[in-house]
Amino acid sequence: GSRTVVLLLRILSEKHGFNLVTSDIHNKTRLTKNEQMELIKNISTAEQPYLFTRHVHFLNFSRFGGDQPVYINIIRDPVNRFLSNYFFRRFGDWRGEQNHMIRTPSMRQEERYLDINVCILENYPECSNPRLFYIIPYFCGQHPRCREPGEWALERAKLNVNENFLLVGILEELEDVLLLLERFLPHYFKDVLSIYKNPEHRKLGNLTVTVKKTVPSPEAIQILYQRMRYEYEFYYYVKEQFHLLKRKFGLKSHIRKPRPRPEFFIPSPLETEEPIDDEEEDDEKWLEDIYKR
């Protein structure tokens, strides 16, 4: 998902004339106090208009006396995210860059070809907690307890979503995410959906699909779900908030009918089918309030 969005941002930055910085630091998400201060300083003093992307846990700019930036993010189904990452680390994608070797040059062959079911059922570190507690820490922040699977990190992540993010979208509904981004941040995202649907961009997007992915057994997936129960509680909370936002701005959900979920999955909230007519609050006033937070 992130690779698809970054491709779009590169096109948009040239089209609309904003500064785009995509960090090449992929595996340092928790920062020391000095590292936080340095990153916040660099972002805060950058030439505007400016958009910065990085895989890093939430940074509280106000804690260091800075103005909070406009935060946006996209999350996906936790098990699907885990599987994509598991195979991407080993085999990369279709871009032909051998980037799995670049990312994991020291990975032993027996580890690279480790069967996903063996990893899960035999409780390898990569397939068990805390490694599976992955999405919540990004929203919880830099506090050490944000890496501990539990209610504290979950509730803090929910609070940050509500108070510090303009939008947290769902990857499975990416077109609706792009529509809302175009509405909220037109200088950056105007025409993003038409670019995304362009056949030439689709060809580029297809190259970022992870290769050699296989589906674990139902038993293994059930174990994953049990280990990721906090991740799923957060995922469905964000999904519900995203659907409320879509309804507020009159977007219908155009989602293909999902495959029946195995009985070990918790049921997802009802999909939004019809927009709500809300005359009590002006849409633009609501958006202004978001920016003032």
Write structural notes for this entry.
The protein is mainly alpha-helical and 293 residues long. The protein has a two-stranded parallel sheet with strand order 1-2. It has a two-stranded parallel sheet with strand order 3-4. The protein has helices at residues 2-16, 33-44, 78-91, 99-103, 109-112, 116-121, 135-140, 151-164, 174-184, 186-189, 192-197, 199-206, 218-227, 229-248, 283-292; strands at residues 19-22, 50-53, 71-75, 165-170. The longest helix is centred in the C-terminal third of the chain and has 20 residues, at 229-248. Residues 257-293 have low confidence and may be disordered.
Characterize the largest beta sheet: strand count, sense, and whether it forms a barrel.
2 strands, parallel
Separate helix tally = 15
Percent of sequence in beta strands: 5-15%
Rg: 20 Å
Helical fraction: 40-55%
Name the poorly predicted regions.
Answer: 257-293
Overall average residue pLDDT: 83
From the spread of the alpha carbons, the general shape counts as globular
Keywords: Glycoprotein, Golgi apparatus, Membrane, Signal-anchor, Transferase, Transmembrane, Transmembrane helix
Protein name: Uronyl 2-sulfotransferase
Organism: Chrysolophus pictus
GO cellular component, one term: Golgi membrane
